[in-house]
Amino acid sequence: MNQRPKLRSPPPSSAASSPSPPTSPNLNREKAKTIIKMPRKSYIKPTLVLASLLAIFALYTFLFYTPPDYSNNNSNLHNKFDTDYSNVNKVKIYMYDLPRRFTYGVIESYAAARGGKPVQNDVLLKYPGNQHSAEWYLFSDLNRPSENRTNSAVTRVIDPEDADLFYVPFFSSLSLVVNPIRPANANGPADRPTYNDEQMQEALMEWLEEQVYWKRNNGWDHVFICQDPNALYKIIDRVKNGVLLVSDFGRLAHNQASLVKDVILPYSHRINTYNGDIGVGNRKSLLFFMGNRYRKEGGKIRDLLFQVLEKEKDVIIKHGAQSRESRRAATQGMHTSKFCLHPAGDTPSACRLFDAIVSLCIPVIVSDYIELPFEDVINYKNIAVFVDTNTAVKPGYLVKSLRRVSTKRILELQKELKKVKRYFQYEDPNGTVKEIWRQVTSKLPLIKLMTNRDKRIVVRELAEPDCSCLCSNQSAVQAIL
Predict the structure, then answer these.
(1) Is the dihedral of CA 165, 170, 173, 174 positive or negative?
(2) DSSP 265-284
(3) Residue 78: what pLDDT?
(4) CB atoms within 10 A of CB 6
(5) What is the mean pLDDT of the chain?
(6) Greater model confidence, 463 or 326
(7) Among 122, 326, 332, 382, who pairs with 416 as Cys (CB 3.0-4.6 Å)?
């Protein structure tokens, strides 16, 4: 093995290495005269020039430089609502003109199942208010005239040949609950029409598979909204290539959904927005929760929290189902409490988190596997308190921890809540809908990657299945997702 060569010092100068030859005294005197007579180099002018330049630069900096504002904890995050999309190439989205039964027909069936009368004009149909109404807001947004959709990340195109993305506006969450839940021994009126969500899902898939643009890219460039955890459950494996707009991944498998290709949506808040200023003067309660005490699966934590909290001072925790009266009580409770408890429901997330945010009531999130919307622009540590489930159910722990939070820190959290609450307001023209479309457009590079990849992969036809090939292809796709 060649050893690394040693570094050597530069050779000494000749003056140091060998004695100078003898010289005559006269020659030395002449040389000295020459040295004395040589003009001396002046450094005054360059120094003055450099000083002048530095002075000009300092004056310019003083007059025109504005220091960055670090007072906002989220100052390093780009505010996507302020992004100007007017002078850039927007992502072109084509919304399928689905048969009426998949959109307005679902609303009509919902009303009919509750004794409503048919209307002659679709404009008169009202989407029932519920926590999964994102599908209605997105549908309505794309139906608005383009001049009313300023500064959006997407623009609707009429010609599908121009489209980057294809939106499928099936009201999948409303379709789940068209038929009212009745006791098992009750018989519904015979004259009311029947509705079958599974048949609607199958019919949607049959219609979609006939579309040339669905087949062209194997569905990768299609966008589906399935905000309810059970929405599209019958056909989810057939649409999983597309961008899924979901509230969480609680009911979806790892090969069906992921943060890489899908978008997390906030539920629509069900209580009124708090329009007052930050402060603790009118928030007398320490902690508030109102909702179903008994849930299944991940929601079992609720009963345990009831047991350790219901006798604590300054804590309001009570059972309540969805109703107008419950919403009024919840509005009053959230608007007058410093902290709002957010335990998991049947799935990791629930609408009360977003009710708390628009109430400026600091969320206390007790959910181990929750996914949160818009985390690329929102730092939830600046607006919420996170506690793991095992710690939260220890008697006395949660209340003691919240009592130790200073008033200054509470005001800081409220201030950040006020800044970001429009992200969770679907009715705000610069709110949730605009942010959802921005999130959808961010998936376009992956969509192009997958469509191009699909086109170059050779599908081999074998007499017998090649298990190794199948496994490797599946593993590759799962790794990307």
Answers:
(1) positive
(2) -PPPP-SPPP-S-S-STT--
(3) 43
(4) 5
(5) 81
(6) 326
(7) 382
